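stage 2 :: seqdesign
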């Protein structure tokens, strides 16, 4: 049972398309909070829990997966993450920073793949028990720029002239369910994110092309006023486990 005398931790989420730099900003924010002696746990979707990591492997691969299964596997990973990590951590008064959350499904499976919004909203509410972030940062960029960072299929071919060999080839070739989608898919994902950000309280759209330091400042300007003046979560920095970035 959560301790009612402890104020809930802050729940902060980073969203964005491929190569938008959100993971870098999530880590920088965790670091900055640590410097202010404020505990924050970093989680990632899909990932972090044993089930999440297991599903991540399959979801990112190009092994067979029909749309309905894809949707439900992301939801299963989210259900486990909320129950195992996010809720218990927030209940202890500790901040959680999530690299992707419910908005990713709206953008990717909703706008990207065409799943109805009411299905996604229903499942998101169900698996999260209605737990939504205090603030969400959308790192917005033209998909062509983000994909350049992670490498388009054509670019990867050019860098890897011998398709039959090469270190890491299997990994690269098989773990690209989303990155290798067509440009219109990534444009729909972007549009979905922008519409979601406009219509949802607590979303902040940032220009992902800005310098890393400038983005960090913009994010900090939103987060700093949300921090409690003093809380038990700030008192001790002795527990390294609470600071470890989880895969
Ligand atoms: P990841 O390597 O974590 O991508 P990124 O570093 O850009 O976050 O891979 C996660 C992929 O899964 C990413 O392409 C987005 C996709 N995804 C969905 O399609 N739906 C979801 O609900 C989530 C959480 C992720």
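stage 2 :: out
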């Amino acid at each position: 049972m959560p301790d009612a005398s402890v104020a809930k931790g802050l729940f902060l989420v980073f969203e964005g398309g491929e190569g938008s730099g959100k993971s870098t900003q999530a880590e920088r924010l965790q670091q900055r909070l640590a410097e202010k002696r404020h505990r924050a746990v970093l989680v990632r979707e899909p990932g972090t829990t044993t089930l999440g990591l297991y599903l991540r492997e399959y979801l990112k691969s190009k092994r067979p997966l029909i749309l309905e299964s894809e949707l439900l596997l992301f939801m299963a990973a989210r259900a486990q993450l909320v129950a195992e990590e996010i809720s218990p951590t927030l209940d202890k008064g500790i901040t959680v920073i999530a690299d992707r959350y419910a908005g990713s499904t709206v953008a990717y499976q909703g706008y990207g793949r065409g799943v109805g919004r009411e299905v996604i909203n229903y499942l998101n509410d169900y698996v999260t028990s209605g737990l939504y972030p205090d603030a969400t940062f959308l790192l917005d960029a033209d998909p062509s720029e983000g994909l350049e960072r992670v490498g388009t299929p054509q670019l990867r071919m050019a860098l890897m002239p011998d398709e039959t060999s090469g270190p890491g080839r299997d990994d690269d070739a098989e773990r690209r369910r989303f990155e290798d989608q067509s440009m219109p898919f990534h444009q729909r994902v972007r549009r979905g994110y922008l519409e979601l950000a406009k219509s949802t309280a607590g979303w902040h759209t940032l220009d992902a092309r800005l310098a890393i330091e400038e983005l960090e400042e913009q994010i900090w300007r939103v987060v700093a006023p949300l921090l409690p003046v003093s809380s038990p979560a700030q008192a001790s920095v002795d527990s390294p486990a609470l600071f470890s970035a989880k895969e």
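stage 3 :: structure notes
- The pocket of thymidine-5'-diphosphate is lined by residues 18, 23, 45-46, 60, 74, 100, 104-105, 108-109, 178 (CB under 6 Å).
- The chain has a mean pLDDT of 87.
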